[in-house]
Specification:
4 helices
Length: 134
């Protein structure tokens, strides 16, 4: 299992590319208040921090799905059955992401999830372990 640990992302795209190569995400949430340690947003709110990261990952996945759909749509129009199946899955993923759902929350058959969805290496499809730093 691959694992990467980053205290803070130095370059957004490189950081997201590194996450794409991992098997899971460990998200450490700051849950303590200490006047000597400044929070980047000025206050400690682990729920807000989690949601910000979720949104960033969802937006990157949406970008990935849109790019993939551009290619698949052309093949699907020619009658390619595999492309049509992939097109339907990508459209389901896109709809979920647009409704702020992570891919791991979407309902797919086991065959589609293991055979197609996991192969897309989407960031919000990866399992996440949340650790609260108290």
């Amino acid at each position: 299992m691959a694992a990467l640990v980053f205290p803070l992302p130095s370059s957004g795209n490189k950081f997201l590319a590194n996450i794409r190569e991992t098997d899971a995400i460990l998200h450490v949430l700051r849950c303590f208040d200490d006047g000597n340690i400044v929070h980047v947003d000025g206050s400690v709110d682990p729920i807000r921090d989690k949601e910000i990261i979720d949104i960033e990952l969802q937006l990157k996945d949406l970008e990935t799905v849109d790019k993939r759909l551009e290619k698949v749509n052309r093949a699907a129009r020619t009658g390619d059955k595999d492309a049509q199946k992939l097109q339907a899955i990508l459209n389901s993923i896109k709809e979920g992401l647009e409704q702020a759902q992570n891919v791991r929350q979407l309902d797919f058959s086991e065959k589609d999830r293991t055979g197609v969805v996991h192969g897309l290496q989407l960031l919000t499809d990866k399992p996440v372990l949340y650790v609260c730093n108290v």
